[in-house]
Amino acid sequence: MTITFTDAAADMTDIGGTAVVLVGGDGKLSGAASAANEAMGGALRRALDAKSFKAKHGDTLAFPFPGGMKADKLILAGLGTDAQKPTDARTLGGKIGAALGKLDAPGATVFAGDLDAALVAELAAGITMRRYAFAKYKTGKDADKLGSGGVDIVTGDKAATAAAFIDADALAQGMFFTRDLVSEPANVLYPATFAERLEDLSEHGVEVTVMGDAELEKIGMGSLLCVGLGSQHESKVVVMKWNGADDASAAPFCVVGKGVTFDTGGISIKPAGGMEEMTMDMGGAGVVSGLMKTVALRKAKANVVGIVGLVENMPDGMATRPGDIVTSLSGKTIEVINTDAEGRLVLADLLTYAQREFKPAATVNLATLTGAIIVALGNYNAGLFSNSDALSEQLADAAGAEGEGIWRMPLSKEYDDLIKSSLADMKNVGGRSAGSITAAQFLQRFVNDSPWAHIDIAGVTLMKEAKPLHPKGASGWGVATLNRLVRDNFEPKDSA
Ligand code: BES
Ligand code: MN
Ligand code: ZN
C-alpha cells in the first residue's frame, strides 16, 4: 500500500473514489468535513445532531454516493477528545485503515489538513500498519485486493509531514519486516534463508555477521547446537550491529531473539493439532530483526546490537534425546529433560555470547518461549521478567506509550530451585507449575548482574483477531516498544 501526501489546495468535492474527513469529539467539523457537509445539504451535521454517530475516537460512518460530490463514498471519522498524542493519531489511522479495508476499492483521499504535521504522519503510518497484508502466496482476485489501493493524504504542511513521516514510517517498515518473517512458512524460511534476509539489512548500514555450525561448535555453543541436531538445516547465529551513537565505543543496548524456524518439539514431539502455528516460533528473532531495521531507517543515535539464534527443532535419529546432557557456552551443563523446551537452550548461549562479546549497557531478550504465558496472560500482554526494576519500568513505560501490553512476572530463588538437576548443573524444565517463570529462571542463570529483561511473547506474536494497528495474523508486537525504549533511554534527549 502506498501513501502520498498532498498540499491542502484541492477542492474536496472534486475528488473521486473514497474521501475521508474528520470531526472532533466536540462535534466540530474539520475544514474538509464542513465543505462536505455543505455539499451534502447538512447531512453530516444531521448525523451528529441525531447522535446516530457520536464521533468518538476512531468511530467511522460511511455515506455512499454523497450528494454534491464526485466521490462514490464519504467516510466521516471521529478524532475523539484525546486524539492529540501521536500514538492516538496512529490508532485513528488504523481505524480508518480498517474502514477502507472493507471497501471493494480500498484506495482513498484522507483530508487531514487541520492536524499538525506530526499527527498526520502518525495517522498515515497507522493506516499502513492496519492495511498490511502478507499476500505473496495468494493468487488471482484475492491477491489483487489484499494490500491494494493507494492512500493520498491531504495535509496543511507537506514538507513538515514528509519529514515527520520518516520516523513513523521507519517503525512501520520494521514492523512489516517482523510480520513478513513471522508469516513465512518453514519450508521457505529456515535458518540459512532467514540469515540471508538479515544480510540485506547491510543496505541500510547495519553490520551483519553470520555464523554457521562449524564456527558455533568452535566457539562452544553446545546448548544452542543441540536443538538443531535433528534438522537437515544448518543452525545459524546472526549478529547485527547498528553503530549510531556519537561515541562509537559506548556500551550498546543488546537485543537477543529466539529464532526457532519450526518447532515440532523434537523427540518430545508435540501433538499434531495446531503444530502448523509453530512457524511463528522465530517470533523473538523476528522482533529483533524488525527493530534493527527501524533503528537503521531512522538513523537512531544509539549503539544497538541484535543477536538471533536460528535453529529448526525436529525429531530424527541424530536429534537430542530426553536425558542427554549438553555443555553450554558458559561452561554450565544442562540435562535436557524435554526437547520441546528448546527456546531456552538457544537463548542460554546467545545471552552468554552477548555479555562476553559486547558488555552491554542493558540486554533484552524476546522469545515465544512458553505456552504457560498464554495460560497466565492470554493474548493481551507479553510476560516481562527482569533482574532490574529500572529496566522493567522503562520497558513498561515504553510499551504503555506505544499501546502494547506488557505485564511483569516474578523471579526468585524458590522458582530457581525447581530446575536443579541431580546429574548436571541444571535441567531444562521445572515441572508443570510456574512454567513461564522456571523458563525465565533458566535464562537468568546465563546472565550476570547487568540489567537484563526477558519478554515472553508467545501470546502476542500471532493474533487471531485484528486490532487497530494490525490485521489478523502476525502482529509485530515489540518493535514499537523496543524502538521507544531505545529512543527514550539510549539516545541523547534532544534528538527525541
Ligand atoms: N515454542 C514453544 C512455546 C509456544 C507455545 C509458543 C505456544 C507459542 C505458542 C516452546 O518451545 C515450547 O514448546 N514450550 C513448551 C515448554 C514445556 C515443554 C516445558 C510448552 O510451552 O509447552
Ligand atoms: Mn518447543
Ligand atoms: Zn519453541
Could you walk me through the main structural features you see in this protein, from its secondary elements to its overall organization?
Helix 13 (389-402) links the parallel strand 14 and strand 15. The longest helix has 26 residues, at 158-183. It is elongated, with a radius of gyration of 24 Å. It starts with a strand and ends in a 7-residue tail after the last helix. It has helices at residues 31-39, 43-49, 86-101, 117-131, 141-145, 158-183, 191-199, 213-219, 222-227, 283-297, 343-358, 372-377, 389-402, 413-416, 435-444, 479-489, and strands at 3-7, 18-24, 60-64, 73-80, 108-111, 151-155, 207-211, 236-243, 253-263, 303-313, 325-327, 333-335, 362-367, 382-386, 406-408, 426-427, 452-456, 462-463, 473-474. The strands form 4 sheets. Strands 7-8-10-9-13-17-14-15 form an 8-stranded mixed β-sheet, with helices on both faces. It has a 6-stranded mixed β-sheet with strand order 1-6-5-2-4-3, sandwiched between helices. It is α/β, with parallel strands linked by helices. It binds ligand BES, manganese (II) ion (MN) and zinc ion. Zinc ion is lined by residues 260, 263, 281, 342-343.
Q: What sort of overall outline do the alpha carbons produce when their principal axes are compared?
A: elongated
Question: Which small-molecule ligands are present, each listed once?
Answer: ligand BES, manganese (II) ion, zinc ion
**Range of strand content:** 15-25%
Helix content: 25-40%
Broad structural category: alpha/beta
Largest sheet: 8 strands, mixed
What is the tally of beta strands?
19
Side by side, the strands of the main sheet go 7-8-10-9-13-17-14-15
